Amino acid sequence: PQDYGITNYEISIGSLDESDILSTQLSCENIRSMCESYDYDSLSTNDRLTYDILIYTLNQNLEGCGYYYYKEPLNPINGIQAELPVLMAEYTFREITDVNDYLAILEKVPAYFQQIQDFEEKKASRGLFMPGFAADNIISQISSLLDAPSFSCLRETFPGKLAHVSGLTEEKQAAYIQAHESRIEEYLVPAYDSLLKTLTRLKETSENDGGLCYLPEGGSYYAYLVKNTTASARSVEELDKLIEEKRQKNMSELAEIIKNNPDILSEMKNVKLSFSTPEEMLEHLKQVMTDDFPEAPDNTYEVKTVEPAMQSFLSPAFYLTAPMDDPDDNNIYINPIHQRTDLELFTTLAHEGYPGHLYETVSSYAQDFSPLRHVLGFGGYTEGWATYVEMQSYYYAGLDENVARALQLNAAATLSLYASIDIGIHKNGWNREIVQEFLSDYGITSKSTADHVYELVVETPANYLKYYVGYLEFSALREAAMERYGEQYNDKAFHQALLAIGPAPFSIIDQYLPLVIVSYLQDPSNA
Questions:
Q1: Who contacts 136 (Cβ-Cβ below 8 Å, separation ≥6)?
Q2: Nearest of 81, 90, 84 to residue 157 by alpha carbon
Q3: Does the CA dihedral 286-288-293-295 come out positive or negative?
Q4: Over the stretch 276-321, which tens digit does the pLDDT of each residue have?
């Protein structure tokens, strides 16, 4: 931090105080006003790109201020109550100061959780509290974390991290371990217990178990949320139509492949790979991707297993973003509770690792970006990229070309169902019965499956759209580049250009891509 002039800093998790609305508005307006004082035309291309992305972000933040109480810090998939234990378990200790900061953060949890509880109380008073089933799911998560030994993931990882801190004697390590145990019991357990009690009480106030469209400003909030989440400039109506068109196109092509290859359904169900461990799969992906992507930076990674106490409510897999000045600190988590075939694990690792999140992250760190770029995130770009390359990975698994294409088409069509359901629930007011009927049209007849999908989408509005819409936007950019550059086009140059631009709204990527891709098409060695 001292390399960036950071020597004194506040220990804080964040804030959900109502006064934040005004301070956010003022801050965004002041920064935007300051930016507008610059001579835009005199900026370098890199600085214009940063400028455009920053202005876009400020405008989005200002629009979001109007929907403050529609935000939801808690949800079963990626709410703070689920992510905090993982983030603290992965809190890196490089020196003694880091250990002290970590312990200080644990002391801040009760006050932060109290702000969340106050926030949820205000949401409830406005008729905006989460659905009752969502509260029940979070209550179940918290109960699991509190089961003895509570927060086992922290208790188990802390001593091992201490052992890597220089200057700590065995006596000091023992003292820190005792201090850690006491903070879990004195701060973390009471904070989670208090949150559990508040949710148990407030769930009785829930007024809406359906989509955002049933809330007073839910329709306009959803339109904002979709744009903010996907980074796409297309309207919800345009996306709804595009998703349906792409699904029908994929399914028609899939039907044609099946018609021409009578044994292909059996082959799709009985795929055999020549590698089985996650590390073997990642190293294979890292090598075979080089025909289509720039060579991966030489960074290390570790594949870890989600702790048993957290398996029931965390994602099937996830990548923890490496610090921008430590690109070797890469961790991919696999959740064993989600059973996978070898192919499903392979494509998941392509999504999280190479050429997915890990590769995209360390590649962006290798670019000459302003540090500001690394805190201006765009979920539609990052998850869209990971989904886009996940679809490509079927062709890296050593499968027959028709089998790979059929599997990829089926995966894309399946993901599109979630995207359509997201819009159906939150814009068009679909209930459980309509979701079940929609899925049954595609051969998914289980009521429990339909209910599960319905609740997932209600709990995390627009979440699935960032994956599928992001994938569609990257695919559209690729198709436009292929048409524009004809025989001169190649995938590696296209991907080089995307990585050189980095995470951004798709409208801005579309604007800058022609300026960047030409040099790579002319000379692929340009970097």
A1: 203
A2: 90
A3: positive
A4: 899 999 999 999 999 999 999 889 999 998 877 667 767 889 999 9
